[in-house]
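Hi D.,

Good news: the full-assembly prediction came through. Inputs first.
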Amino acid sequence: MKNKILFSFLAAVSWINLASAALVPQEWIKDVGPSYEKSMNEGLNGLEQDYDNLLDAKSTMLEKLAQEKSVKNGKRKWFLQSVKSELGIEPVGKIGVIGVKGEAAVEMIWVRTQESIQKLQNKYYGPYRNNIESEEVSVGPKVDETVRLTSNMTHADFEKQIGPIVEASVRTGKVKNRQAFKRNLIQKMKEFQNVAIELERKPQERPWWPYKFQLALYAEASGKVLPYMSVGTGIRVLLEWYRIEKEVADPDDYLVKNHDKPLSENAKFIYAMAKDFETLDELNVRSYKYGLDYIKVGIGLGVKGKIFVAKAKGGMIGSVFFKRDVLGSQNKSMNIKEPKLDDHFYIADEDNSKNREYAYKHKLNVTPLFGNEKSFGEEQKLALYKASREHFRNGLHKTIKMAKFLSKGAVRRAERLRRKGKMVHFDLKVLELELELYLRGGVGAVTLEGIGILELFLVKR
Amino acid sequence: MINWKRKALVSFNIGLLALSLFSCKEKRGKNDVTILGLDDGGKSVVRYLPKGRYVKKFNKMLGQLHGETTEHLEHFVFDGNWDLKRVTVGLLIVGEQRFTPNFKLEVEPSFELRFHPLPKI
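Then the structure:
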């Protein structure tokens, strides 16, 4: 009898536990094939409530924070401009605030509204008169120094750029050998520049184009410069290449100038990525409150300068950022003859039995990274896995539903606040969807235990 | 003789009682905030906090951080050759789990706060 009561009690408890935790559809976080469509929308009601609840909690907290009076008297020089917070998905599929450790599935950037800034100005500097230029919220990595490069910079330009960094690094005592640091950093900058030049050679007729390329480096006290992988006592340097806009407005002009030059491997890689990202164009229709403005891809770089997608934590040393032209703009040439593209791309990941079994199961080609090709993760055994672009596009297609779900929640929250008629101090400006890349090319939301390779930046219109 | 029907009914009722008690929990669960993390062994951990408590607790922490950071920045004098344009302060959630009768969960919010100079008019 006692057992029976206990059973009944436990049954009730376990039933409730199941009922109380909404899960993201398994297809969001699993390496599934093209048969995912049917189940992608199942059980979203419960998840919607959980997501709304999380957004409400965060937004309530920020609104309260904005109303606190931290500096009561006198002029005020500083203000809280934005807050970034994270949500995670654990392996079973529960969504929540990220705790002790783990990879975030969604990053949210809440930006102080113009109205709130004006109110602060009004309070500390008198009646508001002018518009304020607000800087775009960037998500720059946490580094000590950033060096911005262009493809036509000379050795002298490099020296001029890094002069203050070298001096500052020596002053801190983190770098002892000034000459070696300077020499090695310039060497890395040249290698980086060569890759950046290749990115510039990407044909211009596709709507997605690479606008930023970053490479994180780490300098030891001896002056040795390595790919940045972990926190140490040395200096972290970020090399950054920017393209403000497409350099060739008319794609036919580009063809006239470049038709004789075959695309390099890196340019083909970028071209293919850009083309595959068109799968996501549904997220750019004008009526959407959150549009897909940027995509970030984590990359590895061999010493020969070959780019591949990097999945191993120690292997991801850089990022290529893609930007999209406005949907509907005239950005495809009628006369264009596309270069012949591969139907695959390479992903670098650990060369272990688990990945080998996966590769065998899915008939993936595996190439170990040996010797001088392995410029990163010297202690790690890495391999290149041949992933399918078709799987990649299927995976991207799947993320459209995730992105819509996340942005709809943000829109609902904004609507609720609007209905209340209160002044809003922090606006959820950017939703970053972090995505896992499976070795055969599929894509899914990253779980706590995973690693985000692709990031979709959904920006509020 | 044991009245199984009655006992089954009692059992069922206790089950319902448990259900109703936890239904409250479940109902509250709708407003609970889920906290996720990894333990030292890399396994995921899930905990819940009532939304009100989450807001109150973290708002207090963020408020302190906000206040102290702003206060420091207001009095901070930077190298005259440089223009300090942006300060980013990060916070991590640190969890403590003790499976004792007085279950304890201590958390800090994982937020990144970015401060900018307030533009003068």
